[in-house]
Amino acid sequence: MEYVQLAQRHALEAASKVDDAWASFAGPVNPLSADFPLMRPSFAATCGLGYLAFVLLVPPLFKAAGFSIKLKPIMRLYNVFMVALSGYMCVMSILLARQSNDTVWCVPLASGEAGRRMATLTWIFTYSKVIEFLDSVFMVFEGRWRQLSFLHVYHHVSILSYWFAILWIAPGSDAYFSLAGNSFIHVLMYSYYLLASFEITPWWKYYITYCQILQFVSFAGQSIYVGYVKTEAVCDFPDVLSRGLLWYMLTLIALFLNFLVLWEEDFH
Question: What domain of life (predicted)?
């Protein structure tokens, strides 16, 4: 019992140091997000590190034991949920952004009830990225090792990190554009997974990766316009987020283009 208490104390001290370091780097949490649950940076970090530990440590054990299990009924329910959630987030982000302004980019950060609703949607979107860790969990339990690639793991970890920063610093404004675009792509992606589980191949299967790359290119364009052309002196979206988005998108574009080349080589 003494060792458990000692471990708990060390864990709490470590979490406090992470929270303090994040606050020192990013500043105080935006008032629109301050009252939400799970807003400690140490919690988001624990989710990301726990995910990395799982995808790095569990697959070798399962491979060595020859263990795999089919989870098709659970995955079908999961895919239905993700299609519904992604569709909701896509539509709501566009509607809420339109209430603030009629421009596509350089959207003001809403205040009052409108700002609170957009911040709430940002919180839902951010922690939906934790739910999406189940994509990898299903791959591991079903033994689909090839799909558990560097691109897959990097994308899952990095998007949670970036969106927690948005949730903390500016939960709204131009973030709606990425939120809507990513949610739309996920409607296509999870609906494909759902139909494929019934051995139905939708026509958009062959365009999903192209749509993802187009999405990243549009986000990079937004980053250049908001972060480098207009800057935070004109737009409400902080430069650290808008400019950081460009370099983040460049990594994803490169990785997805590499995946597309390899996929087309296998397909042909």
Answer: Eukaryota
Dihedral angle, C-alpha 66, 67, 71, 72, nearest 10 °: 10
Element (H, E) at 205: none
- Which DSSP category does 102 fall into? S
Can you give the length of the chain in residues? 268
Show the tokens assigned to 231.
């800057």
What whole-number distance in Å separates Cα of residue 158 and Cα of residue 56?
A: 16
Strands (DSSP E) found in the chain: none
Cβ density class 194-215: b for 16+ within 10 Å, e for less: beeeeeeeeeeeeeebeebbeb
Give 66's DSSP letter.
T
Question: How far is 36 from 178, CA to CA, in rounded Å?
Answer: 21
* Distance separating alpha carbons of residues 242 and 224, to the nearest angstrom: 8
Angle (CA) 198-145-267 rounded to 5° is 65
Chain segment 174-198, per-residue pLDDT in tens? 999 999 999 999 999 999 999 999 9
| Backbone angles phi and psi of 46, in degrees to 5 | -65, -40
pTM: 0.95
Average pLDDT, the chain: 94
250-266 pLDDT, tens digit per residue, is: 999 999 999 988 766 56
